[in-house]
Amino acid sequence: MPTATDQKTVELIIERQSDPDSGSYTETFSVPYTPNMNIISALMSIRENPTNKAGEKTTPVQWDMSCLEEVCGICSMVINDVPRQACSTLVDELEQPIRIHPMYTFPVVRDLIIDRDSMFDSLKQVKAWIPIDGTYDLGAGPRMSEDKRLMAYELSKCFTCGVCQEACPNVNDKSDFMGPFVFSQVRLKNAHPTGEMNSDERINAFMEDGGLQGCSNSQNCVQVCPKGIPITTSIAAVNREASLQSFKNFFGSDNY
User: Fold this and answer.
1) Same domain for 57 and 71?
2) Are 207 and 239 in contact (CB under 8 A)?
3) pLDDT digits (tens, 9 = 90+) for 95-140
4) Are residues 204 and 161 in the same domain?
5) Do 146 and 92 lie in a common domain?
6) Residue 159 and residue 185: Cα distance in Å, rounded?
7) CA end-to-end span of the chain, whole Å?
8) Long-range pairs for 27-31 at CB < 8 Å and ≥24 separation?
9) Are residues 13 and 110 in the same domain?
């Protein structure tokens, strides 16, 4: 039987911050290893016994989580320099010591908890919703072709986790670029038979300051997206729509 001293451990170096206005610092933890362990499991082990590697009692590390199955998107953080979901990141696949810090693209609330309000503000700006009149029975909705339905399904997988925002070199405090996730949301809503009635509004809103012109097509976003959303395809599609919209705006015609 292995003794306590033979217990395999996982070492984590975590960047911490007490509140939005305080400075950050790092703290190292050593937690017991368990098979198929993910980052959330490691953080929960620290919460159960908030003692750092030096044997000093400390405050439990704070982070967000909900679904634990890569659906809610709120456990996003940077793990070994890659933005990803903590719930689906396995310890066995990482080099140790494991370094974790919050996504710098967003304001830090505390430790690994971030404020993603900017993403939802961007969705409001481009009117990323389908307007309907729910005051009476509209009957059966319009049908979509199978090809368009499959495309829309892939785009609908976005759960605003913010990982693509963190990976994008154009999303930073020196830029007002809304970020790559908006392209797929505009494309998704414009592809809907009802949503396309307001496509001009969405494209025009996304052509304003902080919009699509902020993208340099680095393609970092598509490489890190946990859902494999074809963001670069959406970038190309929305840019084509914007070019057409520019002609329509210039000539004041709906014939294009």
Assistant:
1) yes
2) no
3) 999 999 999 999 999 999 999 999 999 999 999 998 876 677 777 7
4) yes
5) no
6) 11
7) 76
8) 27/52, 27/58, 27/61, 28/52, 28/53, 28/54, 28/97, 29/53, 29/61
9) yes
